[in-house]
Hints:
Layout: H1 15-31, H2 33-39, H3 46-58, H4 66-84, H5 90-94, H6 109-115
Helix pairs in contact: 1-4
Amino acid sequence: MPHVQPVITRASTSLADARTRVLQLYRTWQKGVPKYMIDYHLCMPQSVVRAKIREEFEKNRFVSDPRAIDVLLLKGRMEYEETYNVWKQYSHVLRYFDSNEGPAEPTGFVDRFIEGRA
């Protein structure tokens, strides 16, 4: 049974320290890609999975508050642990690759009216 070593939660002392910890988490995620492919039977190239991991990290690229970065690190580490230990279901992992992530386009008259386009 896979097991991830626990990491002691601590506050970053500076932005440089936070950046180092983020890069360490990013590398840990990337190193686990072959395992995720096997455990979750993902039918996609590894490059797609790696690109999605990078995209998730890029979403928070411009966060500059060390306390906010620490919270994001904690959440990222929890996600990693759940994924690595196969505590997530197949559908939870595939949700990251859903191409319909944005809000749905209004299709009916009422939807367009509420949005102000009718």
